[in-house]
Specification:
The protein has 337 residues and is mainly alpha-helical. It has 2 domains: 90 residues, no CATH class; 230 residues, no CATH class. It is built from 7 helices and 4 strands, in the order ββααααααββα. The longest helix has 130 residues. The N terminus and C terminus are likely disordered.
Length: 337
């Protein structure tokens, strides 16, 4: 008989009579129910043995994917990538400040540069016309020549005409004439020297003004150049700093994007591991679930009972309905109610 044949065959409830005096009686469950419970128990033992031989798979966690590992390494490699750019930016800024300071120093030096005074020794001579001395000498020569050739002969002729030549009167008149001539010569020479001195002073002032203008121009140029260099250096430093920050941010963005891809792959792998685990648990629980369903078929069913007695009479055998017939009647009764 197969494991389920008993469910379709009628139940047998034999009653025996031994013919002895007196009798004993008791209530027994049907054989099919006893076989049914034995079958469930056997199936349970089989499932328990299989559970020991085939344990439930352990739930596991998906590891990091290659993309995630690469992203981690990129983050490590990106550490300090901004330092060279920042160092260059600091260098450019420092250079700009040095340029500005040098320009200021040069401007101060240009404005406060050495200047000569007209009264300094040797300064006048640098600006006096080289012809002034010749003019002065020529005035003296011409004055003396005029005295010798004109004034003195005229005085002598006048003295000769008056009969006083060689007299004290002649000497006095000639001395006064010589004095006047010398004063005239000296006055003309002084006037020539004063004119030359004035001209030299004007030339000096013009040079001094030009020098001052050149110094101011040099100072302004130095300041403008320093400002331009400082501005350029500062802008270059800012750009280098911004590039360093942008490079670090872009590298971090690449790593984050790679990490996101790797995380999706990891989640997909975790889903596969969870699915395999759940399937394994479901497969192991399937037999127990089926067994529980079989057990529930007769749970709450009113089982037929048989009364047994022992006597001296002949053996009497009785039969009851099959288990499925009884279950059908039970379900029909339940449906009717």
């Amino acid at each position: 008989m197969s494991s389920f044949d008993w469910m379709f065959s009628p139940s047998e409830n034999p009653a025996f009579s031994t013919g002895a005096s007196g009798s004993t009686s008791g209530v027994t469950t049907p054989d099919w129910y006893q076989d049914y419970t034995k079958g469930i128990a056997g199936k349970g033992l089989e499932l328990a043995a299989n559970a020991q031989n085939n344990p439930v798979p352990q739930q596991s966690v998906a590891g990091f994917t290659p993309d995630q590992t690469q992203a981690f390494q990129q983050v490590r490699d990106n550490q300090g990538v901004w330092k060279p750019g920042m160092a260059a930016a600091n260098g450019a800024t420092t250079g700009a400040m040095t340029t500005a300071a040098g320009a200021a120093t040069a401007a101060n030096g240009a404005v406060a540069g050495p200047s000569a005074n007209f009264t300094d020794p040797g300064t006048v001579g640098k600006y006096m016309s080289p012809y002034t001395s010749s003019v002065v000498d020529e005035i003296g020569r011409l004055g003396n020549q005029n005295f010798t050739e004109k004034i003195m002969p005229g005085v002598n002729d006048s003295m000769i005409g008056s009969g006083q030549f060689g007299s004290e009167r002649n000497a006095d008149v000639l001395g006064r004439a010589a004095r006047d001539a010398q004063q005239n010569i000296t006055g003309q020479q002084a006037s020539a020297l004063e004119s030359g001195y004035t001209t030299a002073g004007n030339l000096f002032n013009q040079d001094a003004n030009r020098t001052q203008q050149q110094q101011q121009l040099q100072a302004s140029t130095a300041l403008q150049g320093g400002q331009l260099g400082a501005t350029t250096g500062l802008q270059g430093g800012q750009q280098l700093g911004a590039l360093a920050q942008s490079g670090a941010a872009l590298g971090l963005g690449d790593a984050q994007a790679l990490q996101a891809v790797g995380q999706q792959q990891q989640q997909l792998q975790q889903t596969g591991l969870d699915t395999a685990y759940n399937n394994g648990v479901a497969n192991n629980n399937a037999g127990w679930s089926n067994l529980d369903n079989l057990n529930s078929l007769v749970r709450g069913t009113q089982l037929p009972t048989s009364q047994t007695s022992t006597n001296t009479g002949a053996l009497t055998r009785t039969y009851g309905a099959s288990p499925l017939t009884q279950l059908g009647g039970t379900y029909a009764a339940a449906a009717g109610s």
